[in-house]
Design brief:
- It contains five helices and no strands.
- α1 runs parallel beside α5 and α2 packs antiparallel against α5.
- The longest helix has 46 residues.
- The protein is elongated, with a radius of gyration of 22 Å.
Length: 150
Amino acid sequence: MGSDADRVEQDHVSYRLLVDLWARENPIKTAKLLVLLATNALFIATVSFAGGLVPKNWPLCLAGAAFSLVWAFSLGRTVLFQEGWRLKIREIAARYPEDARFQVLETAGERGKAPLIMKVMGAVPSVYYILGAPVILFICWLGALATLVF
């Protein structure tokens, strides 16, 4: 059996790997969100240039809804993986509450020292808009489609 020091070092290696995996998902989420927003802007512009919400544009509304729904699942999967890694990170960190190497993601105390504007603008967890944007866009496209079909 290994020593306690060996166990701590193994946990630290695992912790660093998990933090790296967790962090690598942030640019992926950002890129996916930007593609979702840009593509929806193109759909909206196309519908507008093609006459607006008129019956002939129902395929564009259907495509906008389908694209937004697929993107909701894609972003959801990315968020799910990141959440799984975050839970594992916290599990390892909980074993070593006094070891600063395992507390790099615990920033509650430091956030409290931030300027008010940062606290206000950063108060909404990103998961709400990362997952909310494609769902809201999907609902809007369905509403537009329903307006044209019914």
